[in-house]
Amino acid sequence: MQSKAQIDKILRQNSDAVEIPGIVAMAASGSEVIYQGAFGKRDLSKQDAMTADSVFWIASMTKAITTAAAMQLVEQGKLALDAPIGKLLPDLAAPQVLDGFDAKGEAKLRPAKSPITLRQLMTHTAGFCYDMWNGDMGTYLTKAGIPGIITCQNAALKTPIASDPGTRWEYGTNIDFVGKAVEAVSGKKLDAYLRDHLFAPLGMNDTGFKLTDSMRKRLVGMHTRGADGSLATFEFELEQNPEFHMGGGGLYGTAGDYIKFTQMILNKGRGNGNQVLKAETVAAMSQNNIGDLVVTKMVSAAPPYTNDVDLYPGMVKKWGLSFLINTGKTPEGRSPGSLAWAGLANTYFWIDPARDVAGVILMQVLPFADGKCLEAFAGFERGVYDGLDAAGGRKAA
Question: 95: closest CA among 80, 106, 108, 110?
């Protein structure tokens, strides 16, 4: 790829200046890997150099995988996108909406005006939120003594919703319930289902909720950026014996494995010689599934964990199953109608079917939407498109 030197230079500068501890980036067409690079260190407190097979907490990049698993079960008629999900998941049978707090500071709850559907869960329109972008929910969880979602305790899921189902887009714990739905109809734990029906068929041997000994040897350390821009390491590991597998954010994996997942989407459900989703299912996942609703700015209520998130301000953004969809061309060159999302520790991916290209960039830095990490992502993506343009462009087959 002609732009390999260009991308290498950008990412090496970030890591050499220790603006970002370490980075792994990969890009691919549907048929081949067209770029890969690893820069910096796995952990600033150790000497290990970053390698292409390093293992990262991919956090919310888990969501698209869990949703793909659920769509396999939709294909089989075991799950229905628009039926009330409460019949399958009793905890969602009578959702309560948090309508603020009274003068004494007590939560005001009321019954939701309509039932929750699987499609609403997949599109973040069911009403569930994350307290890190919703201060009222943070207050409620504290008062009610409900553990945070990252504990992977079932009690963490027993929350009200922040708005009536189907009335607005708000990013939240929805996909954890999609994982519960997969378990309910498949009779398998989510880790086993994903392994048997996605990871093994696609050759994603370094992805899972539980760290194997081999994965742990390649695990990237977590870092936090101080207000002065400095980086510090801190101990972080998801519960290895969780009460539930967090379908919304529990996976660890490598760039190479995630690229295989993105290539499966580019190839209309086929990867590693296996058809894991029907072409029409991938098409449905890739379309706007929120109608007239739009993806809105996510304002931080927990600065240690996330900055405000406003990707492509001024552009209308939609949501598929379960991807962010940009409706215009991005400054980096991504085609309208492309698919993307990210993970809390600054991991990002995009899938551009119109240009037959996908990319993954993994870092381990908090808070989310870190300025330096976003710059590295933009530089990487721009380099990939510069390379495609120089080669005369790639068109989808």
Answer: 110
Structure tokens, 91: 């905890």
Q: In this structure, what DSSP letter does residue 117 have?
A: B
CA distance 238 to 227: 25
Selected catalytic residue, list 15, 54, 60, 286: 60
317 catalytic per annotation: no
* Calpha distance 121→166 (Å, rounded): 10
Q: For the chain, which ranges sit under pLDDT 50?
A: 1, 395-397
Cis ω for the linkage preceding 322 (within 30 of 0)? yes
Q: What is the pLDDT of residue 395?
A: 47
Distances (CA, A) of 290 to 66, 126, 323: 19, 11, 11
Q: What is the pLDDT of residue 391?
A: 87
CATH 3.40.710.10 fits 4-74+188-390, yes or no: yes
Q: Point out the catalytic residue in the list 41, 63, 268, 317.
A: 63
Residue 371, CB-side half-sphere exposure with 13 Å CA sphere: 7
Tell me if residue 130 is catalytic: no
Measure the CA–CA gap between 109 and 97, rounded to whole angstroms: 5
For the chain, domain boundaries: 4-74+188-390, 76-183
Q: What is the pTM of this model?
A: 0.97
**Which member of 35, 130, 171, 348 is catalytic?**
171
Q: At what angle do helices 174-186 and 62-75 cross, to 10 degrees?
A: 40
DSSP 309: B
Strand bridging mode 22-28 / 357-362: antiparallel
pLDDT reported for residue 2 = 52
The whole-angstrom separation of Cα 312 and Cα 333 is 12
State the Cα–Cα distance between residues 234 and 219, nearest whole angstrom. Answer: 13
